[in-house]
Protein backbone atom coordinates (compact mmCIF):
# COMPACT_ATOMS: atom_id res chain seq x y z
CA UNK A 1 0.00 0.00 0.00
CA UNK A 2 1.24 3.47 -0.88
CA UNK A 3 3.14 5.41 0.14
CA UNK A 4 5.38 2.99 2.07
CA UNK A 5 4.08 -0.48 1.22
CA UNK A 6 2.90 -1.11 4.76
CA UNK A 7 -0.27 -2.98 5.72
CA UNK A 8 -1.33 -3.14 9.37
CA UNK A 9 -3.58 -6.01 10.48
CA UNK A 10 -4.92 -5.30 13.95
CA UNK A 11 -5.40 -8.01 16.58
CA UNK A 12 -8.75 -9.69 16.08
CA UNK A 13 -8.92 -8.78 12.39
CA UNK A 14 -6.64 -11.53 11.08
CA UNK A 15 -9.39 -13.84 9.84
CA UNK A 16 -11.38 -11.12 8.08
CA UNK A 17 -8.20 -9.85 6.44
CA UNK A 18 -7.25 -13.30 5.17
CA UNK A 19 -10.76 -14.32 4.07
CA UNK A 20 -10.75 -12.38 0.80
CA UNK A 21 -7.28 -13.52 -0.31
CA UNK A 22 -6.66 -16.30 -2.87
CA UNK A 23 -5.83 -19.51 -1.03
CA UNK A 24 -2.43 -19.58 -2.73
CA UNK A 25 -1.42 -16.53 -0.66
CA UNK A 26 -1.26 -18.65 2.49
CA UNK A 27 2.31 -19.52 3.41
CA UNK A 28 3.00 -23.17 2.58
CA UNK A 29 0.32 -23.49 -0.12
CA UNK A 30 2.27 -24.28 -3.27
CA UNK A 31 0.97 -25.15 -6.71
CA UNK A 32 0.39 -28.83 -5.90
CA UNK A 33 -1.54 -28.11 -2.70
CA UNK A 34 -3.49 -25.35 -4.43
CA UNK A 35 -4.60 -27.73 -7.22
CA UNK A 36 -5.96 -30.21 -4.67
CA UNK A 37 -7.74 -27.43 -2.78
CA UNK A 38 -9.22 -26.10 -6.03
CA UNK A 39 -10.64 -29.57 -6.75
CA UNK A 40 -12.30 -29.36 -3.34
CA UNK A 41 -13.88 -26.06 -4.38
CA UNK A 42 -11.48 -23.96 -2.34
CA UNK A 43 -10.46 -20.76 -4.17
CA UNK A 44 -10.14 -18.25 -1.34
CA UNK A 45 -8.98 -18.43 2.25
CA UNK A 46 -12.62 -17.99 3.29
CA UNK A 47 -13.52 -21.13 1.29
CA UNK A 48 -10.83 -22.97 3.23
CA UNK A 49 -12.46 -22.08 6.56
CA UNK A 50 -15.57 -23.96 5.43
CA UNK A 51 -13.74 -27.28 5.02
CA UNK A 52 -13.82 -29.48 8.17
CA UNK A 53 -10.49 -30.18 9.80
CA UNK A 54 -10.97 -33.96 9.39
CA UNK A 55 -11.30 -33.63 5.61
CA UNK A 56 -8.19 -31.46 5.37
CA UNK A 57 -6.22 -33.94 7.46
CA UNK A 58 -7.43 -36.84 5.31
CA UNK A 59 -6.08 -35.10 2.18
CA UNK A 60 -2.95 -33.44 3.54
CA UNK A 61 -2.03 -35.24 6.77
CA UNK A 62 -0.42 -33.04 9.42
CA UNK A 63 -0.41 -30.13 6.95
CA UNK A 64 -4.20 -30.29 6.99
CA UNK A 65 -4.32 -29.10 10.58
CA UNK A 66 -1.95 -26.26 9.73
CA UNK A 67 -4.23 -25.20 6.86
CA UNK A 68 -7.25 -25.30 9.16
CA UNK A 69 -5.55 -23.00 11.69
CA UNK A 70 -3.77 -20.74 9.17
CA UNK A 71 -7.02 -19.95 7.37
CA UNK A 72 -8.25 -18.55 10.69
CA UNK A 73 -5.14 -16.47 11.28
CA UNK A 74 -3.78 -18.80 13.94
CA UNK A 75 -0.08 -19.69 13.93
CA UNK A 76 1.76 -20.26 17.21
CA UNK A 77 5.13 -21.07 15.67
CA UNK A 78 8.01 -18.87 16.91
CA UNK A 79 9.11 -15.84 14.88
CA UNK A 80 12.68 -16.41 13.68
CA UNK A 81 14.52 -13.41 12.17
CA UNK A 82 15.72 -13.91 8.61
CA UNK A 83 19.35 -13.68 9.68
CA UNK A 84 18.91 -16.61 12.14
CA UNK A 85 16.73 -18.84 9.98
CA UNK A 86 19.46 -20.21 7.75
CA UNK A 87 23.15 -20.10 7.09
CA UNK A 88 23.42 -17.31 4.55
CA UNK A 89 26.16 -17.28 1.93
CA UNK A 90 26.04 -13.55 1.36
CA UNK A 91 24.27 -10.40 2.48
CA UNK A 92 24.00 -7.12 0.62
CA UNK A 93 22.23 -3.81 0.16
CA UNK A 94 21.79 -1.65 -2.92
CA UNK A 95 20.17 1.65 -3.78
CA UNK A 96 18.71 3.01 -7.03
CA UNK A 97 19.01 6.79 -7.21
CA UNK A 98 15.96 8.89 -7.98
CA UNK A 99 18.02 10.45 -10.76
CA UNK A 100 21.42 9.59 -12.21
CA UNK A 101 24.24 11.07 -10.14
CA UNK A 102 27.98 11.61 -10.37
CA UNK A 103 28.48 13.82 -7.31
CA UNK A 104 31.28 12.05 -5.37
CA UNK A 105 29.82 13.23 -2.04
CA UNK A 106 26.51 11.57 -2.80
CA UNK A 107 28.07 8.44 -4.31
CA UNK A 108 30.52 7.83 -1.46
CA UNK A 109 27.98 8.90 1.15
CA UNK A 110 25.51 6.37 -0.21
CA UNK A 111 28.19 3.68 -0.31
CA UNK A 112 29.05 4.39 3.33
CA UNK A 113 25.37 4.22 4.35
CA UNK A 114 25.00 0.86 2.58
CA UNK A 115 28.13 -0.40 4.35
CA UNK A 116 26.68 0.77 7.69
CA UNK A 117 23.54 -1.23 7.06
CA UNK A 118 25.50 -4.27 5.89
CA UNK A 119 27.81 -4.23 8.91
CA UNK A 120 24.89 -4.03 11.30
CA UNK A 121 23.06 -6.84 9.52
CA UNK A 122 26.15 -9.05 9.65
CA UNK A 123 26.57 -8.43 13.36
CA UNK A 124 22.93 -9.20 14.05
CA UNK A 125 23.36 -12.53 12.30
CA UNK A 126 26.75 -13.14 13.96
CA UNK A 127 28.37 -13.39 10.53
CA UNK A 128 31.74 -12.28 9.19
CA UNK A 129 32.34 -11.56 5.50
CA UNK A 130 35.45 -12.90 3.82
CA UNK A 131 34.94 -10.90 0.62
CA UNK A 132 33.33 -7.63 -0.46
CA UNK A 133 31.62 -6.94 -3.79
CA UNK A 134 30.50 -3.61 -5.22
CA UNK A 135 27.75 -3.38 -7.85
CA UNK A 136 27.44 -0.38 -10.18
CA UNK A 137 24.78 0.41 -12.75
CA UNK A 138 25.48 3.29 -15.10
CA UNK A 139 23.05 5.65 -16.83
CA UNK A 140 22.99 3.44 -19.95
CA UNK A 141 22.01 0.47 -17.71
CA UNK A 142 25.40 -1.20 -18.10
CA UNK A 143 25.93 -3.10 -14.85
CA UNK A 144 29.24 -4.31 -13.43
CA UNK A 145 30.31 -6.05 -10.23
CA UNK A 146 33.79 -5.99 -8.76
CA UNK A 147 34.92 -8.01 -5.76
CA UNK A 148 37.90 -8.67 -3.55
CA UNK A 149 38.86 -10.90 -0.63
CA UNK A 150 39.33 -9.04 2.62
CA UNK A 151 42.50 -9.62 4.57
CA UNK A 152 40.60 -10.42 7.77
CA UNK A 153 36.95 -11.62 7.89
CA UNK A 154 34.89 -8.70 9.14
CA UNK A 155 31.48 -7.38 10.14
CA UNK A 156 32.64 -3.80 10.72
CA UNK A 157 31.32 -1.12 8.37
CA UNK A 158 34.54 0.89 8.32
CA UNK A 159 36.50 -2.14 7.14
CA UNK A 160 33.80 -3.02 4.59
CA UNK A 161 33.71 0.59 3.36
CA UNK A 162 37.49 0.77 3.04
CA UNK A 163 37.47 -2.22 0.68
CA UNK A 164 34.30 -1.15 -1.14
CA UNK A 165 35.73 2.33 -1.72
CA UNK A 166 38.84 0.84 -3.35
CA UNK A 167 36.65 -1.21 -5.66
CA UNK A 168 34.53 1.81 -6.52
CA UNK A 169 37.53 4.01 -7.30
CA UNK A 170 38.95 1.32 -9.57
CA UNK A 171 35.68 0.94 -11.50
CA UNK A 172 34.11 4.39 -11.63
CA UNK A 173 35.44 7.50 -13.29
CA UNK A 174 33.87 10.47 -11.58
CA UNK A 175 32.27 11.87 -14.74
CA UNK A 176 30.18 8.75 -15.32
CA UNK A 177 26.57 9.01 -14.23
CA UNK A 178 25.46 6.27 -11.84
CA UNK A 179 21.95 4.87 -11.55
CA UNK A 180 22.52 2.23 -8.86
CA UNK A 181 25.13 1.29 -6.31
CA UNK A 182 25.29 -1.79 -4.11
CA UNK A 183 27.60 -3.58 -1.71
CA UNK A 184 27.63 -7.25 -0.69
CA UNK A 185 29.54 -9.21 1.91
CA UNK A 186 30.13 -12.79 0.77
CA UNK A 187 31.79 -16.00 1.85
CA UNK A 188 30.10 -15.63 5.23
CA UNK A 189 31.43 -17.48 8.23
CA UNK A 190 30.23 -17.65 11.83
CA UNK A 191 33.56 -18.00 13.59
CA UNK A 192 36.33 -16.38 11.58
CA UNK A 193 39.67 -18.15 11.50
CA UNK A 194 42.07 -15.25 11.12
CA UNK A 195 45.55 -14.00 11.75
CA UNK A 196 45.03 -11.08 14.11
CA UNK A 197 46.27 -7.67 13.01
CA UNK A 198 48.42 -5.94 15.59
CA UNK A 199 47.52 -2.40 14.53
CA UNK A 200 44.31 -2.84 12.53
CA UNK A 201 41.05 -1.17 13.51
CA UNK A 202 39.28 -4.55 13.59
CA UNK A 203 41.00 -5.35 16.89
CA UNK A 204 40.91 -1.86 18.38
CA UNK A 205 38.94 -2.32 21.63
CA UNK A 206 37.80 1.30 21.70
CA UNK A 207 36.35 1.01 18.19
CA UNK A 208 34.69 -2.28 19.06
CA UNK A 209 33.06 -0.68 22.10
CA UNK A 210 31.91 2.24 19.97
CA UNK A 211 30.30 -0.09 17.43
CA UNK A 212 28.54 -2.02 20.21
CA UNK A 213 27.25 1.25 21.69
CA UNK A 214 25.96 2.42 18.28
CA UNK A 215 24.15 -0.90 17.80
CA UNK A 216 22.42 -0.49 21.17
CA UNK A 217 21.32 3.05 20.29
CA UNK A 218 19.87 1.87 16.98
CA UNK A 219 18.15 -1.08 18.63
CA UNK A 220 16.38 1.32 20.96
CA UNK A 221 15.80 4.41 18.82
CA UNK A 222 15.89 3.18 15.20
CA UNK A 223 18.39 2.90 12.36
CA UNK A 224 18.61 6.65 11.72
CA UNK A 225 19.19 7.61 15.35
CA UNK A 226 22.95 7.79 14.84
CA UNK A 227 24.93 7.91 11.60
CA UNK A 228 28.41 8.43 10.29
CA UNK A 229 28.64 12.06 9.17
CA UNK A 230 29.84 10.99 5.73
CA UNK A 231 26.64 9.06 5.06
CA UNK A 232 24.35 11.99 5.76
CA UNK A 233 24.66 13.06 2.11
CA UNK A 234 23.39 9.67 0.97
CA UNK A 235 20.16 9.37 -0.99
CA UNK A 236 19.66 5.89 0.52
CA UNK A 237 16.96 6.90 2.98
Structure description:
The chain is of the alpha+beta class and 237 residues long. Helix content is 38%, strand content 18%. It has eight helices and four strands. It has helices at residues 14-19, 31-39, 45-49, 53-60, 62-70, 104-125, 157-171, 205-221, and strands at 90-101, 129-138, 143-154, 178-186. A four-stranded antiparallel β-sheet has the order 1-4-2-3, with helices on one face. A hairpin with a 4-residue loop joins strand 2 and strand 3 (143-154). Helix 4 crosses helix 5 (62-70) and helix 6 packs across helix 7. The chain starts with 13 loop residues before the first helix and ends in a 16-residue tail after the last helix. The mean pLDDT is 87.
Structural features:
alpha+beta; 4-stranded antiparallel beta sheet; elongated
